[in-house]
């Protein structure tokens, strides 16, 4: 058991590091080939924080553990809002002023409802995976159009996101990090999934609960780091935007992967219990972010954080 815990930690560290290197190299390479910072920021960088979830989801699906892959999506989305935004708001209240975010939040709710419609019959099929991937492409195109329009109005989040795009990186260095990321990412995901399963099975957890707890929290750590870094630099909109974008990507891209690779029946708890928790915290975020104050204060942050602790406690106590 101690060996499995150590290997899980190693796998998680490698997963987060390799995802960061892959995104860095890809973004630098794209910029060197003349792709605009806006496009890079809304695609490569925005998807980067979901890279660990995507690789873990693919690994789990290929190993016949679709419940783990879906649990990772649901659990990560819940953790992104309740844990990460909760902790971030406790560190510093978050203001929401970006026009992009005000348009993206309803899209997040719509995508969440689509996930519920897909899981309603407790089955994730191939055509549903195709639908999610197609919707993912449509979402990217839509957000690019919205971002271009908002950039002309001087939206602060767009400027903040563009400033994160690496500049002046040699092509050889960029390609090196892309190759390293592509090699290490699947190895670390496999290490994480296999040892998470060993630990969770030791405690009698189901594949779904494994994804909702150990793996979901682990793969959400890049979002936590990004949000805390953003808020400490005064980039509140970007901190919130990372979470909203990650949640949309998780449902459309990450959930689409197991549908394509391993269509399967799902544990009924995924729809009957965990979907409603995800929808509930998503709606709570919309109320907080689009309310009169257009902010998430420390009291609201503590509510989100306590909801996450209560949810995780319920899962563990009811294994």
Describe this structure in words.
- It is a single chain.
- This protein is mainly α.
- It has a domain of 223 residues: Up-down Bundle (A middle domain of Talin 1), CATH 1.20.1420.
- The chain is 82% helix and 3% strand.
- It contains 14 helices and 4 strands.
- The strands form 2 sheets. Strands 1-4 form a two-stranded antiparallel sheet. A two-stranded antiparallel ribbon has the order 2-3.
- Helix 2 crosses helix 7, helix 3 packs antiparallel against helix 4 and helix 10 runs antiparallel to helix 11.
- It is globular.
- The chain starts with a helix and ends with a helix.
- One of its GO terms (cellular component) is plasma membrane.
- It comes from Vibrio inusitatus NBRC 102082.
- This is Sodium:calcium antiporter.
- It is a multi-pass membrane protein.
- Keywords: Membrane, Transmembrane, Transmembrane helix.
């Amino acid at each position: 058991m101690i060996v499995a815990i150590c290997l899980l930690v190693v796998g998680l560290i490698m997963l987060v590091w390799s995802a960061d290197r892959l995104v860095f190299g890809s973004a630098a390479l794209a910029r060197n080939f003349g792709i605009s910072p806006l496009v890079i920021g809304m695609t490569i960088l925005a998807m980067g924080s979901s890279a660990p979830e995507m690789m873990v989801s693919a690994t789990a699906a290929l190993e016949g553990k679709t419940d783990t892959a879906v649990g990772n999506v649901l659990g990560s989305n819940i953790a992104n809002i309740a844990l990460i935004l909760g902790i971030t708001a406790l560190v510093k209240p978050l203001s929401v002023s970006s026009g992009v975010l005000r348009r993206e939040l309803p899209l997040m709710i719509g995508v969440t409802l689509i996930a519920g419609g897909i899981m309603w019959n407790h089955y994730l099929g191939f055509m549903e995976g195709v639908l999610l991937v197609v919707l993912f492409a449509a979402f990217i195109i839509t957000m690019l159009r919205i971002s271009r329009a908002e950039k002309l109005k001087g939206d602060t989040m767009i400027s903040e996101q563009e400033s994160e795009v690496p500049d002046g990186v040699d092509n050889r260095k960029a390609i090196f990090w892309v190759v390293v990321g592509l090699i290490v990412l699947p190895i670390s995901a496999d290490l994480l999934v296999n040892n998470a399963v060993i630990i969770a099975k030791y405690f009698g957890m189901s594949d779904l609960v494994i994804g909702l707890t150990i793996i979901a929290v682990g793969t959400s750590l890049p979002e936590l780091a990004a949000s805390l870094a953003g808020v400490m630099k005064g980039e509140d909109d970007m901190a919130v935007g990372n979470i909203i974008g990650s949640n949309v990507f998780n449902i459309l891209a990450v959930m689409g992967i197991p549908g394509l690779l391993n269509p399967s029946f799902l544990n009924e708890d995924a729809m009957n219990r965990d979907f409603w928790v995800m929808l509930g915290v998503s709606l709570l975020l919309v109320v907080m972010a689009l309310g009169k104050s257009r902010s998430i204060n420390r009291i609201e942050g503590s509510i989100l954080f306590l909801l996450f602790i209560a949810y995780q406690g319920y899962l563990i106590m009811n294994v």
